[in-house]
Amino acid sequence: QSLRTGRTRIVADVLELGDAYVACDPRDRSEIVIPLLGGGESEASAHPATLVLDLDSIAVGRFSDDDDGLLRKAMIRTGLTPVEHGPALHGPWIEPD
After folding, report:
1. Which residues make beta-bridge pairs with 51?
2. Is the pTM of this model over 0.70?
3. Are 40 and 79 spatial neighbours (Cβ–Cβ below 8 Å)?
4. Could you tell me which residue, 21 or 59, shows the higher pLDDT?
5. Most buried pick, 24, 63, 66, 92, via CB within 10 A?
């Protein structure tokens, strides 16, 4: 979803996603996924996302827009370019029509 939209996904409670969520750890309860470019390209809007930073937590509601901003800054320092096609998407995914 993050790759398709080019936007961060913040899910406060992954149980809201039902079968649409694939857990790496059955204790996971929240997550943040940030789309990134792998080569450090400078013009993120002109390129599709090629990878994601996916962090999970066993705490419900662990991630926020502030975390998104801080993680994006950290990724830039590592040479990766976060894709920015709008503000973070929160909550369960709703398939576009």
Report:
1. 36
2. yes
3. yes
4. 59
5. 63
Please tell me the distance from the alpha carbon of residue 36 to that of residue 90, in angstroms, as a whole number: 18
Q: Cβ neighbours of residue 37 under 8 Å, at least 6 residues apart?
A: 44, 47, 49, 50, 51, 80, 81, 82, 83
Other beta carbons within 10 Å of 37:
20
Listed residue (30, 26, 28) closest to 13, CA to CA: 30
For residue 83, what is the DSSP state?
Answer: -
CA angle 16, 3, 29 (to 5 degrees): 25
Return the closest-CA partner of residue 8 out of 76, 55, 60, 78: 55
DSSP 88: P
Reference 47, options 25, 80, 9; nearest CA is: 80
